[in-house]
Amino acid sequence: MERKTIALVTGDGSGPEMMAVACAIAIEAAKKDGIEIVFEKTPMGWNAYEKYGDTLPSESFDKAIKIGTVFFGGVGDPKLDGTIGAKYPVMKPEARCLLALRKHMGLLLNFRPMIYYKELAHLANVKPETIPDGGIQQVWIRFLLEDSYFGNEDLMDLRPDECAKIGVKLKKKVMGDEELVTDIAYFRQSTVKKYIRAAFAYARSAGLPLISIDKANVMARYDFWRKIVTRIGEEEFPDVPLTHQLVDSANALLFTPAKLHGVIACGNEHGDILSDGAAAALGSMGMMCSSAINPDTGKAMFESGAGTAPTLAGQDKANPIGRILTAAMMLRHLGAVNGARAIEEAVKKTLGMGYRTADMCAYSWNGVLGTLGMGNLILSSL
Ligand code: IPM
Ligand code: MG
Questions:
Q1: How far apart are CA 49 and CA 61, in angstroms?
Q2: For residue 292, what pLDDT band results from cuts at 50, 70 and 90?
Q3: What ligand 1 atom has the least distance to the C-alpha of 95?
Q4: Phi and psi at residue 239, in whole multiples of 5°?
Q5: Which H or E run includes 17?
Q6: Distance in Å from the first CA to the final CA of the chain
Q7: What is the mean pLDDT of the chain?
Q8: Any bridge partners for residue 2, and if so which?
Q9: Angle of helix 147-158 relative to helix 268-282, nearest 10 degrees?
Q10: N or C: which end of the chain has fewer CB atoms below 10 A?
């Protein structure tokens, strides 16, 4: 069997419980493709702080970067963010771990395919009649670098003196008594071109149109974005239908999902905001899966967009399906296509048979399953 090593961040809150079942399922499913998956623990988050005094121990970080494939269970806990995090803002794990990994691994493409399950229509926030009979395909591909997320840090490296003059500050250094604080947002031509070509290529291979989201009516960087998208569309992908959508109207279209059927290209910040809305519109955040890829090196991180469910930690209650579907994305990336498909089908089958975790029930019901129960059922129907 071919062996694939993956750096495993079990994470905070309910992360370890959800990741335990997701890892067991990934290992079992990958065997269908003759692949042996080996997880190497790389602790990050508040759990790592408690053990090693750092939410991002350098040993974990270096190892994750070196391995190049990371299965990320989510970090953060509002309680600790407010206590230790208030004292040592630099330790707040969401930015410290996630953003550092994205930047150092060069993870440009963030895939967030939305899946609508008829069985879970009661969780969705769209009217059932807005879903076409043939179902809905909404593949969000968020531009995961640069923009307002990395602007300050990147510009400080380039021009520290100018930054000080115009109020550019690192988030962890903000005191709240400044006269002026600036966030820099930028797009680099070469990065946008690489990104948009990848999004077009994905749309072409999936037979879907490309919907590009921007704020070209107001912002320079989005005017630039729209011009690049239009040119690449006309010159290189004339066969892929392209539409442009302003971000505010795209937000309104989340409630008529058929109008966003396709591959959706959007900036880092817009994508962060809209993808949560899309997940909640079509189902729930607990079901969202997500992968982040460097298209040049193949380095990748698989992090369910869902949170760490800190209030459920240790109680075997959190819904593991977002993590499990994210494991399917990871398997597909590693070439375990049969395993990936088997996981997706097992999830569908398990939901189809009526099994639910507590967050999926519209009312309290004593047949509800815990994290482990749901995980084991999916595992056994692989
Ligand atoms: C996401 C998250 C992250 C982001 C946070 C945790 C830094 O919200 O992956 O969508 O803003 O990108
Ligand atoms: Mg988000």
A1: 13
A2: very high
A3: 7
A4: -80, -10
A5: helix 15-30
A6: 19
A7: 94
A8: 35
A9: 160
A10: N
